Structures are given as C-alpha cells and as structure tokens.
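Good morning,

Attaching, inline, the backbone tokens for the sequence recovery test we're adding to the shared suite. The designed sequence is right after.
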C-alpha cells in the first residue's frame, strides 16, 4: 500500500527530544517493514521549510538555511517525491468547494488533492482532525497505530 507522510511526521522525525519523535519514527519504520511505500509531495517540503526556518519564538524550529536544506535532502533521499501537476490544482479546487475549506486548512486540502491524483488513500499524521472531513482519506495516527496494529 502507498501512503503520504504528513509534514508533522517529517518535523517530529528530525527532533529527537520531541515527545512525538519515537512514535513518528517507529510508525514510519513499521510501515516500511510491512512493505508499504511512503511518499511526500512538494507541499510537504514547502511546509517543512517554513517551520524549520521560522524562529522558535514564533512556533518554529529556528534552523539555519543550511541545516534546513540538509534535512530536506535527507527526506528526499528517504521518500519518493510525488510530482506536482495541474491536475492537483483542479482537484484541490473541487475539494475546497465541496468541503467548504477555509483559512490554513487549504494546505491540507492540497495534500489530499495530491493523494487523489496519485491514487494514495492513507496519510500518516498526528493531526487526524485536519483530514477527517475528507472521505477519500484514511488516517494513520502514530499515537495509536503501533498499539493497535501489533
């Protein structure tokens, strides 16, 4: 099965001192060990860059450009990057209209649009509430995945 990794999983996976580091890493490892394919999108990397380079006092990680670039390169080596194309925008437009998506939630709709275009049904995320509205998506939450699937 092919899954999309949400940006919050990527962010938690590069912070060993964060309480969600272990569940993020362990879930990714378990899914890969079970033969699943895990993918990312350009949107993931844009969001990742945003949070990494934002100052800590503004809810970011405060990374330098060089450190952020290094982390992005690691991510791209680990997970295939799905292509961005015009079909994703068309699908995104349908989603935001059909589900009446507003504000910052439009970014999650972009991830869902990419999933639909690339025939992915599952997303690994700590923010399941952000994706519950989308009937097209099955949520895998690392906080519960390891305890309910082993």
């Amino acid at each position: 099965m092919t899954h999309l990794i949400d940006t919050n999983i990527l962010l938690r996976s590069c912070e060993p001192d964060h309480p969600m580091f272990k569940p993020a890493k362990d879930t990714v490892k378990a899914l890969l060990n079970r033969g699943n394919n895990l993918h990312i999108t350009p949107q993931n990397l844009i969001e990742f860059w945003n949070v990494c380079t934002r100052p800590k006092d503004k809810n970011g990680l405060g990374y330098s450009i060089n450190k952020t670039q290094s982390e992005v390169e690691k991510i791209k080596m680990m997970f295939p990057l799905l292509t961005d194309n015009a079909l994703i925008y068309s699908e995104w437009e349908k989603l935001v209209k059909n589900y009446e998506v507003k504000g910052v939630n439009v970014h999650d709709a972009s991830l869902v649009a990419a999933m639909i275009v690339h025939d992915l049904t599952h997303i690994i995320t700590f923010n399941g509430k952000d994706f519950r509205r989308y009937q097209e998506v099955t949520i895998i939450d690392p906080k519960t995945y390891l305890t309910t699937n082993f």
